Each structure stands twice: as C-alpha cells, then as structure tokens.
Amino acid sequence: MRRTATKAPRSAPQADLFGSSLLPGLAYCGDVITPAEEAELISCIEAAKLTPFQFQQWEGKRLTRSFGWTYDFQTGCFARGDPLPRWLEAMRRRAARFAGINPFALEQALVIQYGIGAGIGWHKDRPVFDHVIGVSLGAPATMRFRRRRASKFDRATADLAPRSIYHMHGEARDDWEHSIAPMTMPRWSITFRSLRGR
C-alpha cells in the first residue's frame, strides 16, 4: 500500500516518518517485490562489477555502479554512462508505476552494495536529478532527514524495510537533506532517478 505525505515535522525533535506522517513529497510502500525477486536482484548487483565509492580523497565502505548517467565526485563531471542492463528493466517499470511517471523518464540507475559499517552521509541528490525512487534489499536501514531552520535542524527518520520502495520529489527531495545510518548487516539498494527539465 502506497503511503503519501500530509505534513512535515514542525519542530526540532525527531519524528518517525513511516510510523506517523510522511514529509510532503515522500511516499513509501513495503513488499514491492517477493523474496525470490530480491535474491535475484542482489545476485545481479553483485555481478555488476561494482567499484568502491570515491569522494575526492576519501573511499567509502560501499560499492557502487551507475547506469544511464554517471556523476564523478572527483571531477564534478556529469556524463552518459553504460545503458541500463536488462535485469533492471522490470524494476524500473515497477518503480515508475509507483511514482506515477513514465518508465523512460527514469534515465539513471545507481546500484549499491553496503559493507558492514557503511552508510551515506548528509546530502541532497545532484540538482540535475528530479524524481528519486529507491528500492531496499537485504537488511533494514534507517533513512534520516534534516532541514535547517534558523539555528537548529528539523529532523525525522524513516525505517526502510527489505523489499520496500520509497519516492522522493518536491519538498522532500529539494528542501531536506537525507542520509543512511551505518549498517550492521549487508544491504543492497537500487535507486532510479529522472533528469530535471526533461
């Protein structure tokens, strides 16, 4: 069942988004795929020749690969990449249906394998991207959100269950930073993105 947002947290104390209300522009659904489909996707990700995530002189504990479009955090270069592989096509159609957009609008896909202790620091997706749709595989994860308000942050968290999907657009995508808390068990993810202004 798709859950959509009604209002954002109003104050600095942390709120559990999926236990109560969601941020405007954030939607979530559990069990979007079966355990068998999850296992097949994990196998495909592990065979996709992932490489360590690089940010300037820092190397992350996660392995990644982009399809469709790539963004080089070393040079700031955004460029065409390898086309989406066939094994991602069915998941792209499902993600697009969840978000209510054309599958071909999702021109970029990022696959990630998280090692023990890996997470993602605070960030917003690159401005060139618009819709962001993520599929969680393996261990549960905690997605954290924050938005600066005067001298403090509004904060919220969202628990991402295995085989679940989320969609960020509008306020949740543009006004809030997000991060993934460090993992204590292996996790994989697939993130589809559309390009702004297409």
Structure description:
With 198 residues, the chain is mainly β. It has one domain (15-195): Alpha-ketoglutarate-dependent dioxygenase AlkB-like (Jelly Rolls). Helix content is 14%, strand content 44%. The chain has 3 helices and 14 strands. It has helices at 35-46, 89-99, 171-174, and strands at residues 15-16, 26-29, 51-55, 58-67, 69-72, 77-80, 106-114, 120-123, 129-138, 141-149, 152-160, 165-168, 177-180, 187-195. The strands form 3 sheets. It has a 7-stranded antiparallel sheet. Strand 10 and strand 11 (152-160) form a beta hairpin. The radius of gyration is 16 Å and the shape is globular. Mean pLDDT is 87; it is low at 4-14.
- How large is the radius of gyration? 16 Å
- Number of DSSP strands? 14
Structural class call reads mainly beta
**What is the second-level CATH architecture?**
Sandwich
Q: How much of the sequence is in beta strands? A: 35-45%
The total count of helices amounts to: 3
Give the low-confidence spans.
4-14
Q: What is the helical fraction, as a range of percent? A: 10-25%
Find the CATH topology: Jelly Rolls
Question: Which whole number gives the mean pLDDT?
Answer: 87
The string of secondary-structure elements, in order, is: EEHEEEEHEEEEEEHEE
For this structure, what is the CATH class?
Mainly Beta
Span between termini: 29 Å
Taken from the alpha-carbon principal axes, the silhouette is globular
The major beta sheet can be summarized as: 7 strands, antiparallel
CATH superfamily: Alpha-ketoglutarate-dependent dioxygenase AlkB-like
Number of domains: 1
Q: Strand order across the biggest sheet?
A: 2-12-9-14-7-4-3
